[in-house]
Design goal:
The complex is a heterodimer of chains A (268) and B (391). By secondary structure, chain A is α/β, with parallel strands linked by helices. Chain A has two domains: 2-182, Pyruvate-ferredoxin oxidoreductase, PFOR, domain III (Pyruvate-ferredoxin Oxidoreductase, domain 3, 3-Layer(aba) Sandwich); 200-265, Alpha-Beta Plaits (2-Layer Sandwich), CATH 3.30.70.20. Chain A has helices spanning 14-27, 117-124, 131-142, 147-157, 161-176, 194-197, 222-226, 251-255, and strands spanning 2-9, 31-36, 46-54, 69-72, 92-96, 111-115, 181-182, 208-212, 232-235, 238-241, 261-265. Chain A has a seven-stranded mixed β-sheet, with helices on one face. Chain A is globular and about 65 Å long. The two termini of chain A are 36 Å apart. By secondary structure, chain B is of the alpha/beta class. Chain B has two domains: 3-196 and 207-248, Thiamin diphosphate (ThDP)-binding fold, Pyr/PP domains (Rossmann fold), CATH 3.40.50.970; 257-390, Rossmann fold. Chain B is built from 13 helices and 15 strands. Chain B has a seven-stranded mixed β-sheet with strand order 3-2-4-5-7-6-12, with helices on both faces. A six-stranded mixed β-sheet of chain B has the order 9-11-10-13-14-15, with helices on both faces. In chain B, helix 6 crosses helix 9. Chain B starts with a strand and ends with a strand. The interface between A and B is medium-sized, with 22 and 24 residues.
């Protein structure tokens, strides 16, 4: 039996990814179990989902604690979540990361394959939803599932235009993912202390950040009213963003009537 | 022939209701049951399923509406979880008391918190409903179809719950075989109520109802009749399980309990639901190491298969019972009932009770292996004669 753990953020489609993968593997004659970890998730919060792949019926109903493979849907997640925890020695990590894997801060007796899934998703879908791109990367890096089975399942899941768009993300990532590199010589980056993980700082959840042009801000308070995280205050008639509370949803930018707020992609 | 699909447990439940051609559905959404209602609503809206779908304002009404539809002669279905099931408690007595064969899916959610345990169903223990527990999505689909046949049998005529652990089954996707509609139709003919409470039949219905309710007679009579129906249900459950096997090639033990690798063992553990599924792996690992321990899966919680446990208890020296529930101030519910079943044996095995998985606490293969090792020690006469532990 092969066990896989997916790390992502609410809204990146980790649950959909394991379900599509389970269906695709079933087409290839495997028995599968796709297990989402449900709690009180919200958009942007760290989430996990699991996949078991076997040759016959799988009876285990506990969670996956010692995965053979870890898939990370978000480039910043590994700074706050111990993504390699319990990963078997020699295990494979497939990670959304736009730079060489040796710079991802992941170290240990693992193999690491990287792909700029956020970039691919923005190209193919116009949104940073990275699950289908990461499925393409998973297929290539692990060799466990064929691109054809994934394509077939994906089009069944999203018939029409949405399926075509996701197909593009899947194929592009399949082509662009790097071959797995040995990261045993690399010093793993220190995780932040646990207190910080549970703090209200959500700045690492962002892919885009709002940038304010004070000259165009007319102080109408629309952004202040619509911000779901109460991250905007009005100071001397102008909006000001508290970036530790902003998860980058972009609602302020949508609501701003004068175009004073633009969304800028965060640099890694 | 059926077809296969990778689906979540809640979809398997919806398929059971659809294949059974339910005529009436009333339900109120609650996590983790919600998607059952969503799947069924889609099936009704698209015309795939010809049923009356009634949106209600709460579970008390969901149960009462299903009761009314069943009384009028319709095949009625509802589904709920945790606190929703508690809110149904009052009319559930009326459904069983009126002998209306409503079928309900219970997707377990603890009465304390969101995560699963069996406390929701155990709180309905004495409502007079048949209760069948499932360990995987295929079993949910199959048991859902069987539930109608059991509930509607003239010897039974009792409402029936089929249940599975929320989250663990409700949202996990795995391959499930969907039987063909033709086969299900042949296995489960349309419901014909002998006494529908419809205008014109009122006189006959009144007579039957008065007998059932004991009006003008021994006021205890309706309790006694229900208990007799529960006893009769044991045979019916076993028959339906065998008939299902003939049609679909799957059966679940003898319908009441399933023995897993119990040949030539000195002890066995007892578990319900998904814990029984995980326990199979633990038993496989231990038997590979030469340990002589098996698993008995309790499938029918009501009626409770006391005779089965007497027969099985006579074969071993120790039993370890895992309860995903507790009767506070007393103890594990299946532990007590199994212990009580063994009382008439000349030579009784030792019996150990374990509380595990309450409020969704994860039960790992290793936890069950440890339970097995403790039970095996008891079988060798070591440790206290009886023991209760929290895992």
């Amino acid at each position: 039996m092969i066990e896989v753990r997916f790390h992502g953020r609410g809204g990146q489609g980790a649950v959909t990814a394991v379900r599509i993968l389970a269906s695709a593997l079933y087409l290839e004659g495997k028995y599968t179990q796709a297990i989402p970890m449900y709690g009180t998730e919200r958009r942007g919060a760290p989430v996990v989902a699991f996949l078991r792949i076997g040759e016959s019926r799988i009876n285990e109903r506990d969670l996956v604690h010692n995965p053979d493979i870890v898939v990370v849907l978000d480039p910043l997640l590994s700074r706050t979540v111990p993504v390699t925890e319990g990963l078997k020695e020699g295990g494979l990590i497939v990670m959304n990361f736009p730079k060489p894997g040796t710079e991802a801060g992941i170290g240990g007796r693992f193999m690491l394959a990287t792909v700029d899934a956020t970039g691919i998703a923005l190209e193919a879908l116009g949104r940073p939803i990275t699950n289908t791109a990461m499925l393409g990367a998973f297929a290539k890096a692990s060799g466990l599932v064929s691109l054809e089975s994934l394509e077939k399942t994906l089009l069944e899941h999203w018939p029409g235009r949405l399926g075509e768009m996701n197909l593009r993300a899947l194929r592009t990532a399949y082509e662009r993912v790097t071959p797995p590199v040995d990261v045993s010589g690399i010093q793993a980056q220190e995780k932040r202390p646990r207190e910080e993980i549970f703090s209200k700082d959500v700045s690492s959840w962002r892919i885009f950040k709002p940038q304010l042009d004070e000259d165009r801000c007319v102080g109408c308070r629309r952004c202040y009213i619509y911000c779901p995280e109460v991250a905007i205050s009005m100071i001397q008639g102008k909006a000001r963003v508290d970036y530790s509370s902003c998860k980058g949803c972009g609602i302020c930018g949508e609501e701003c009537p004068t175009g004073a707020i633009s969304m800028v992609q965060e640099a890694l | 022939m059926g077809r296969w699909e990778v689906m979540v447990g809640n979809k398997a439940i919806a398929y059971a209701a659809k294949l059974a051609r339910v005529q009436f559905i009333s339900a109120y959404p609650i996590t983790p049951q919600t998607s059952v209602v969503e799947y069924l609503a889609e099936m009704v809206a698209s015309g795939e399923l010809d049923a009356e779908f009634v949106n209600v304002e709460g579970e008390l009404t969901a149960q009462t509406a299903a009761l009314g539809a069943s009384a009028a002669g319709a095949r009625a279905f509802t589904a709920t979880s945790g606190p929703g099931l508690l809110y149904m408690h009052h009319p559930m007595h009326a459904t069983s008391g009126g002998r209306f064969p409503v079928v309900m899916a219970v997707i377990h959610r603890s009465v304390k918190g969101m995560q699963p345990d069996h406390s929701d169903m155990m709180a309905q223990r004495d409502t007079g409903w048949i209760m069948l527990e499932c360990e995987n999505s295929q079993e949910l689909l199959d048991t859902g179809i069987m539930a109608f046949k059991i509930a509607e049998d003239e010897r039974v005529r009792l409402p029936t719950i089929f249940a599975g652990d929320g989250y663990i089954l409700s949202y996990t996707a795995e391959p499930v075989e969907i039987p063909s509609q033709e086969d299900v139709d042949a296995f489960l003919p349309p419901y014909r109520s002998s006494y529908p409470l419809l205008p014109g039949l009122a006189e006959e219905a009144r007579r039957v109802q008065m007998e059932q309710w004991g009006i003008g007679q021994d006021p205890q009579l309706r309790w006694r009749r229900q208990q007799e129906a529960m006893e009769a249900a044991k045979m019916v459950i076993m028959e339906v399980n065998e008939e299902f096997y003939k049609w679909f090639g799957r059966r679940y033990g003898n319908g009441l309990v399933e023995e897993y690798r119990c040949d030539d063992v000195e002890a066995f553990i007892v578990a319900m639901g998904t814990i029984a599924s995980t326990a199979r792996t633990a038993i496989d690992r231990l038997q590979a190491k030469g340990r002589r321990i098996g698993l008995v899966k309790l499938k029918s919680f009501r009626p409770f298969p006391s005779e089965e446990f007497r027969r099985l208890g006579a074969m071993v020296r120790a039993i370890g019972v895992i309860d995903r529930n507790i009767s506070l101030g007393s103890g594990g519910i299946t532990f007590q009932e199994i212990r009580s079943s063994l009382y008439d044996l000349e030579e009784r095995p030792r019996i150990l009770g374990f509380h595990a998985g309450l409020s969704g606490k994860e039960v790992r293969v290793g936890d069950i292996e440890m339970i097995c090792e403790k039970t095996l020690r008891a079988a060798k006469g070591e440790g206290p004669p009886s023991l209760v532990e929290w895992i």
